[in-house]
């Protein structure tokens, strides 16, 4: 059974189709496409990219392949993944803020980091961190209740909440003193340095672009800040002989199962930066989009609220009973995938779906396109959480909110537990509506972000 046949929409409801950016002309020039990419890559794709299995093109003298065929995606991300590495532009954008952490590392360095970190992100390990998630979410609900009947910026509230969760799960201390500085770092990088420039794409990685100089200055300040957080956590210590109780403990105690090696201080700093940034920013954005969709679709919002009421057992929210709430999160990440684009460069020649690929050719796998592809999904632009309640799950290479294969996001389970619990608690406590009805348009700047932060009206249930 195909993804498109795996669900039914209630006949009495017309599904919500949220606003999205206009599609680019298929015959856009290279310079027109470059200009569009600078604003948002999401707006640089034409209708063909939403209809065809593979779209071939040329960009600055190199062949490009946009892959929407699950078998072709499996070949690149699973069967022959070692032949495909991050593009120079991708490394330029991500390395200054993530260093050589798990998200960036390649080859043996990546395998070492993945083996070493894996025990810290098992479902059992995540269970020990749930009290941190619940405490921070309950505090956010209390603050929002104090502001009930007033206009609130839920995007900012979700950023503060997920940052607090990141701080507590990473270091066992809140982010009251450091949260503003950390948010400033994230905002500065996103606004000034995260968008690739023309020279970022044209120059070899060994030749610094003008933006690279600014990124290097940023990295010096950023790594000093992360080092300060680590020093503060170490100064706090932990009870002698006590088991690990946060991610910093788990990562500090982690050893490569093959060599017994621990992370160096610099390596640990890059992992801390990766986990805090990748964890809090992507989850905050996913929760914002979920709340935005539920504000637009009051019927689905009411379904979530009813499920939450029935999922409270002995005063505690039972995540195993939040099936529909989880489906809302899944559908939100289909429409607004945290990582909207996976770009890879071929290290050597290959063949994909019968097409010859040369060294340095660029392979694009865009969850934004894949999740809205007209061959893979029925009503691809509509918000229909029930499609994830069907007995047949989507093809694992047609739905990639956390990637797939060996490099699937190590924190996927952590993020899903956090997002499901947080959405349930917020919708269980409040009815959420929008103050204004102007459309919020997604843009791609590292993650799938809103072009503005709308104000919400919340009322206690």
Automatic annotation (TrEMBL):
Its cofactor is heme. Gene3D superfamilies: Cytochrome P450. The keyword Heme applies. The keyword Oxidoreductase applies. Keywords: Heme, Iron, Metal-binding, Monooxygenase, Oxidoreductase. It comes from the Bacteria. Heme binds at residue 409. InterPro entries: Cyt_P450 (IPR001128), Cyt_P450_CS (IPR017972), Cyt_P450_E_grp-I (IPR002401), Cyt_P450_sf (IPR036396), Cytochrome_P450_monoxygenase (IPR050121). One of its GO terms (molecular function) is heme binding. Residues 1-24 are annotated as: Disordered. Belongs to the cytochrome P450 family. This is Cytochrome. It comes from Bradyrhizobium valentinum. The lineage of its organism: Bacteria, Pseudomonadati, Pseudomonadota, Alphaproteobacteria, Hyphomicrobiales.
